[in-house]
Design goal:
This protein is of the alpha+beta class and 206 residues long. Helices cover 25% and strands 26% of the residues. Strand 2 (121-123) and strand 3 form a beta hairpin.
Length: 206
């Protein structure tokens, strides 16, 4: 039997309740410590595995795409099927006269003194630059601010080549020859009943 407290004195907390409260607090603390240690151990165990996944064969950073080869976002692998652009070699560059005898750019230096089926372009009168051959389309006007590269001329001819074009002073044209050369022709000035032009000729190498 637990004695009653003297009159006027508040009853104190029983000892057994204090012991139970202390034991509960200790149990809660132990549970928290064990949980923290378990989490720390799991994190430490996961770090070597993550390092092994992101490291290359020599221990350096991995070169694998972030999302692998499944087609997700990541690095783009260049295709082995990219087309190879042809290379161009300069053959000749100088001035010469252009008239209705035409010019053969497939010889070096270009020839303007023999009319015939070998010519590539000729003056069809009234400032008409004409491709030799009724079905040929081998001239295209260049309107860029600077001179085109041979690749620029080849692209222009592939897209916009015509058989006949009108030229004037300071105009520039890309020309494709019968043997596949690429020529840049600049019309400089009228001279001696003909036109003085500057031509740059390139050979194409696959």
């Amino acid at each position: 039997m637990i004695p009653a407290p003297p009159p006027g004195q508040a009853a104190g907390t029983p000892l057994w309740q204090i012991v139970v409260a202390v034991l509960g607090a200790v149990a809660t603390l132990i549970t928290a410590v064990v949980g923290g240690l378990t989490l720390f151990y799991q994190v430490r165990q996961a770090e070597p595995a993550r390092s092994a996944q992101t490291a290359g064969p020599s221990g350096g950073p991995s070169l694998e795409p972030p999302n692998g080869p499944s087609g997700g976002p990541g690095w783009v692998t260049p295709s082995a099927e990219l087309p190879v652009r042809p290379a161009y070699a300069p053959v000749w560059s100088d001035t010469l006269l252009f008239d209705n005898n035409g010019i053969d750019f497939d010889v070096t230096p270009p020839s303007n003194d023999r009319a015939g089926p070998e010519i590539d372009i000729y003056d069809g009168s009234s400032n008409q630059l004409v491709t030799f051959g009724a079905s040929s389309k081998n001239v295209a006007r260049w309107s860029g601010a600077s001179d085109p590269t041979p690749a620029d001329c080849a692209d222009l001819l592939a897209r916009y080549a015509v058989r006949v074009a009108t030229f004037d002073e300071n105009s520039s044209f890309c020309v494709r020859t019968g043997n596949g050369r690429v020529v840049l022709v600049k019309f400089l000035r009228p001279r001696d009943g003909a036109w003085e032009i500057h031509a740059t000729v390139w050979n194409v190498h696959d």
